[in-house]
Amino acid sequence: MSELITAQGLSVRHGDTEVLHGIDFTISPGEIVTVVGPNGSGKSTLVRALIGLEPAARGEVTRKPGLKIGYVPQKLHIDASLPMTVRRFLSLPKRVSDAGAEAALERTGVPHLGARQIARLSGGQFQRVLLARALLTEPDILILDEPTQGLDQPGTAGFYKLIEEVRAETGAAVLMVSHDLHVVMSASDRVICLNGHVCCQGTPKVVAEAPEYRALFGMGTQGAFALYQHDHDHGDEHTDHATCTHEHAHV
Ligand SMILES: Nc1ncnc2c1ncn2[C@@H]1O[C@H](COP(=O)(O)OP(=O)(O)OP(=O)(O)O)[C@@H](O)[C@H]1O
4 CA to middle of ligand 1, Å? Predict the structure, then answer.
């Protein structure tokens, strides 16, 4: 198979609630795919299911045999009272050589941070260290759940530029969850809008021009947008065209 990860008819439940239903998904080598959608729409659940951290209630997820995944979760709590240097953090859970750690920090633009306490890093530095850690395994695919959360606009733009450089250098595919719609649109090969199901997907250009997408994310809001869940279901297609369906935007 050429796809790195495939999901067919994937549904995931949390307790009695079906959080995701009928998801068809693929990601190919070297692709940058971004998942957007309102809070609680199942973005983190989807990436966790694709990795195998959440069981499928229905459907199936297939990963290419031997696939190496570099995963940066949405939340990683590190106790501020626990002394731990960046260098030590990079060796958890698996020890890495000094040369390997240095190369990864260099690659993510923070070569001087090895001796620093992890709890004292800025948000942007911490994200770059997390990315360095994810790169240590030389992954076929990087999976980043809201990697620029809490970063300012230059920090966010810089981080996405770094992601593109890493993709260009290593050929790794990238699957991201993000709320930074404007940057996401330019940095992604494909955007998937999720709302419990895939309600919209396509190339950034095609999706951005789709009236449905504009309705979904709002116009004239200076980047602010609001999305509301809808409770009807319908078929979704995977095509190169935007396949937005009738969502309701309230801006
Ligand atoms: N471990 C869990 N147990 C029960 N319910 C959960 C669990 N994790 C997530 N949920 C619920 O599943 C739904 C989807 O959550 P998920 O975190 O996947 O959404 P999301 O799109 O990533 O949200 P956000 O943008 O706020 O990060 C939410 O209603 C959430 O409350």
Answer: 24
ipTM score: 0.97
Question: Per-residue pLDDT tens for 31-78?
Answer: 999 998 888 889 999 999 999 999 999 999 999 999 999 998 877 777
Which amino acid, residue 134? A
- Tell me the CA distances in angstroms from 112 to 32, 44, 98, one per residue in order: 28, 32, 13
Our answer on whether the CB atom of 44 is closer than 6 Å to any ligand 1 atom is yes
Detail the DSSP E strand segments found in the chain: 5-14, 17-27, 32-36, 58-63, 69-72, 141-145, 173-177, 190-194, 198-202
Pairing of the two strands 32-36 and 190-194: parallel
Domains and CATH numbers, the chain: 5-41+68-217 (3.40.50.300)
Query: In this structure, what token pair is assigned to residue 65?
Result: 């045999």
Is 0.90 topped by the overall pTM? no
User: How far away, in angstroms, is 61 Cα from ligand 1 center?
Assistant: 19
